[in-house]
Design goal:
The protein has 137 residues and is α+β, with helices and mostly antiparallel strands. The protein has two domains: 31 residues; 95 residues, Glutaredoxin (3-Layer(aba) Sandwich). 45% of the residues lie in helices and 18% in strands. The chain has four helices and four strands, in the order αβαβαββα. A hairpin with a 5-residue loop joins strand 3 and strand 4. Helix 2 packs across helix 4. The relative contact order is 0.17.
């Protein structure tokens, strides 16, 4: 009986630790400004951070073309940066990125507007940024 109680206490403790870590990450994410993470001066352009890895085929074949389309259509309004999540895991962790492709959409003032944990098409990213106008192919 003591062994079962010990196991239950350990499981409960693990659940509490995981919950506390997730709550802390969420709080930390909401409080801190995000635009300065990649040294983009505030107020210049909005920022889209695309997280990728070297072996991510959807990142290269689908997400990158969508990002290029967004940048071509809104070059004056949007800065697009790709980040290798294996090279900069602290930045990926900062935004709760657990899989690639993922994109983080940040407004000019540093406010995080959206986090996409899957592929995001150029029109979706433009809408998240509040940009008007047709996208060119």
């Amino acid at each position: 009986m003591d062994a079962r109680l010990t196991v239950l206490v350990l499981i409960a403790a693990a659940v509490v630790v995981v919950w506390a870590a997730l709550a802390w990450r969420t709080r930390r994410f909401r409080v801190a400004p995000a635009a300065d993470l990649l040294s983009l001066p505030r107020g210049t352009r909005a920022l889209v951070i695309a997280f990728t890895t070297p072996d991510c085929a959807p990142c290269r074949m689908q997400q990158r073309p969508a990002l290029e389309q967004l940048h071509r259509a809104h070059r004056q309004d949007v800065e697009v940066r790709e980040v290798d999540a294996t090279v900069d895991p602290r930045l990926a962790d900062r935004f709760g990125i657990l899989s690639v492709p993922s994109t983080v959409v940040i407004a000019r003032d540093g406010t995080v507007l959206a986090i996409n944990h899957t592929l995001a098409a150029a029109p979706k990213l433009a809408a998240q940024l509040g940009l008007n106008g047709a996208l060119r192919a």
